[in-house]
Write a structure and sequence with these properties.
The complex is a heterodimer of chains A (260) and B (396).
Chain A lengths: L1 H26 L24 E6 L5 H15 L13 E4 L1 H4 L10 H5 L2 E4 L7 H5 L5 E3 L5 E3 L9 H5 L6 E2 L25 E2 L5 H4 L6 H4 L5 E5 L6 H8 L2 E2 L11 E4 L1
Parallel strand pairs in A: 1-10
Antiparallel strand pairs in A: 1-8, 2-3, 4-5, 6-7, 9-10
Chain B lengths: L9 H27 L14 H14 L2 H9 L9 H22 L8 H4 L6 H28 L8 H24 L12 H28 L5 H32 L2 H12 L8 H18 L2 H4 L2 H28 L14 H33 L12
Classes of the chains: A alpha+beta (260), B mainly alpha (396).
């Protein structure tokens, strides 16, 4: 009787220790414990598409809304905040001229001239970055998303030369000190220095059946959906509104459309 | 034959020691880069390739230029190049080694570089560049040493080497064509998106490479008395002159297409390089220096009386090497990234640590070159009996 109680105590102590250790090992000394640990059930209902695409209604965008989306993106993917010309950015804003330089606008409407246009990876149908990558660290998924394998990337930066949209960032230095503590997401990896990164259309959220982080907070200004399904909301929107794409003459067939 | 490199004058050992010192100094800066990342360079999100990749481009040209000796000698039996040809082949070896090292120092994750071989990707031009450079290195090592061995033994080279040499001629063109294709196929980079890019690369290589070779040969002659022969110098100088004329002509073709068509995308990089764009004119002095020296070199090279007069020829060659180096080693890469995809200008200039890492690579190249040329000269001394490598010529 005595010994069995002792055994029970031992077992309880060991499992408590194991549980604690398990949690600690998983989370490291991360300052944030915001998200729950995903389990198999999390991935039971992923979002799927023939070809993912996005429609950006620029008329609804303000500087604040772009920053709100950019912040949601940084927070979801542990994107470091680095000032200056070595910055890392997945989602950001620019003027109409920066977004559509080949339009070479002479007399722009005041409204459009002042508008903040969201910029991100176009997830091109014929992506140049994928064509030039010497290790297939950048690749295209069957659903059209252009992805990165940060563990295979050798940091040659050929993809940055290939991308006509300036969508890619290189980690010139260790990015971890530049991730804000309050924005740290323990469920998404941080990167090492010397690799290239960019927007992934939040593949990790799609796998959980959720919409991309920027779309969630965009107050309806971003529509994300299946370009391959003619009954989808995004195709409906494309039929309804006139849209343009960035640098279509580069031949990469962007999957991101802009309502001006 | 390698034992020839192990016996030498104090001057030879002093040179090697000096170069090793420079390599050690530069590798300190490379360690600094490996520890901190490419943040120590002047590179940026917009200008993501710079000095390192530009040097790769320039020295692929130098490596390819050996063909300007090999082709006339083997295809047209231009026998005057017989003494010089080994120098060309032995210059190609360090040039290719430098190219590879410049790629390695440019990588963000150099310890993963074998991923290029582990995950071969035939749609990437960098994959082909890796192949052609490695094979070209091997070809030059084999051809150089086999023909030198045959010369030493006073025998004809083995028959099987002939097809290998013919292959190396074609291969030399391929290495620079493939290097041009690295740039010429990218839709967003207007300065590079030009069908004449590979032709420009070859013409610039075939003037700058042999010019560098000829200058080094003059240096070798002054140091050791090794004389490649007047006719060889004359022949090579003529080749350099034609190649430089074609190089200038090709550049003018680019200017015509960009400015007569009046297409902003094609004009902007050239405007940035030669007169500045959006208030940034950092490269303007360099590009005009290159223009003046490039045209100046033709002034010394085209008239026969200058070209066949060594002091004037040397001045012309130095001007040519500087001009082509600025064009290809600075303007080409930066011009390709400027303006950036948002039509803005981000300034790039190499930083001091970046230049010191480059110094390491240059010194490794110089070290390999010194050892190889020492072997070539010593073998000739052994065969011909004269002693012009050990005793410097007396000043008269």
């Amino acid at each position: 009787m005595k010994s069995s109680r002792r055994q029970f105590m031992k077992l309880a102590a060991a499992s408590a220790l194991g549980l604690g250790a398990g949690k600690l090992a998983f989370m490291g000394d991360a300052p944030a414990f915001a998200s729950d640990i995903p389990t198999a059930a999390t991935f039971e209902h992923p979002l799927k598409a023939k070809h993912w695409g996005m429609v950006i209604d620029t008329t609804k965008f303000t500087k604040e809304l772009v920053e709100k989306c950019a912040h949601a993106c940084r927070k979801q993917h542990n994107v470091p905040v680095i000032e200056g010309k070595k910055e890392v950015k997945w989602f950001w804003g620019g003027t109409f001229e920066e977004a559509f330089p080949n339009q070479i606008p002479e007399y722009l409407s005041e409204d459009v001239e002042k508008r903040e246009i969201p910029l991100l990876c176009n997830h091109c149908e014929s992506p140049m970055c994928v064509r030039v990558c010497p290790t297939q660290a950048t690749f295209q998924r069957a659903d059209g998303i252009v992805m990165m394998d940060m563990h295979r990337c050798i940091g040659c930066r050929y993809c940055m030369a290939g991308c006509p949209f300036g969508a890619r960032s290189f980690n010139f230095q260790n990015p971890r000190p530049f991730i804000k503590d309050e924005d740290f997401n323990p469920n998404y990896p941080t990167r090492t220095r010397g690799v290239v990164e960019k927007c992934t259309f939040c593949t990790e959220l799609l796998a959980e059946g959720k919409m991309p982080a920027c779309v969630e907070v965009s107050e309806g200004a971003l529509t994300f959906g299946d370009l391959g399904d003619e009954n989808s909301e995004i195709r409906h929107l494309l039929r309804e509104k006139f849209t343009i794409r960035r640098k279509p003459d580069a031949g990469t067939k962007p999957s991101v459309y802009y309502i001006i | 034959m390698l034992e020839k490199a192990l016996k030498g004058s104090p001057r030879y050992w002093g040179t090697l020691a000096g170069l090793i010192g420079l390599i050690a100094l530069g590798s300190g800066f490379w360690m600094y880069q490996l520890t901190n990342g490419l943040v120590i360079t002047g590179l940026s999100r917009d200008v993501s390739w710079g000095f390192y990749i530009a040097q790769l481009t320039y020295f692929v040209g130098v490596a390819a230029s050996a063909v300007m000796l090999v082709l006339p000698y083997y295809f047209h039996h231009f026998k005057q190049f017989s003494k010089m040809i080994i120098l060309g082949e032995f210059l190609a070896i360090p040039a290719v080694i430098m190219c590879m090292l410049f790629v390695v120092v440019d990588l963000g994750q150099p310890q993963r570089m074998l991923n290029i071989i582990i995950h071969p990707t035939p749609n990437s031009i960098l994959f082909y560049d890796m192949i052609v450079l490695n094979v070209y290195l091997l070809l030059n090592i084999v051809i150089g040493f086999i023909s030198l061995q045959a010369f030493r033994n006073k025998m004809d080279p083995p028959k099987w080497i002939k097809p290998v040499i013919y292959l190396s001629v074609i291969w030399a063109f391929s290495i620079h064509t493939v290097t041009a294709f690295l740039y010429a196929g990218l839709p967003g980079r207007h300065y590079w998106l030009s069908a004449i890019m590979a032709a420009r690369f070859l013409s610039s290589a075939f003037c700058s490479g042999p010019a560098l070779l000829l200058l080094l040969t003059f240096l070798l002659k002054a140091l050791t008395g090794f004389d490649p022969g007047k006719k060889a110098i004359k022949g090579l100088a003529l080749i350099i002159t034609y190649a430089m004329c074609i190089n200038v002509f090709f550049y003018l073709l680019e200017l015509f297409t960009a400015f007569y068509s009046n297409m902003p995308g094609h004009m902007d990089p050239i405007i940035y390089l030669f007169s500045g764009l959006h208030g940034h004119n950092d490269l303007v002095p360099f590009m005009w220096t290159a223009t003046v020296l490039g045209l100046g070199s033709l002034f010394f090279l085209i008239p026969t009386k200058f070209r066949e007069n060594p002091p004037a020829l040397i001045v012309g060659l130095i001007m040519l090497v500087i001009a082509t180096w600025i064009d290809k080693g600075m303007g080409l890469i930066i011009g390709g990234f400027t303006p950036n995809p948002f039509e803005e200008v981000t300034v790039y200039l190499p930083t001091f640590p970046e230049l010191m890492v480059s110094l390491m690579v240059f010194s490794i190249g110089a070290l390999v070159l010194t050892v190889l040329w020492k072997i070539a000269v010593e073998v000739r001394v052994e065969v011909e009996g004269c002693n012009h490598s050990l005793v410097p010529p007396k000043a008269e």
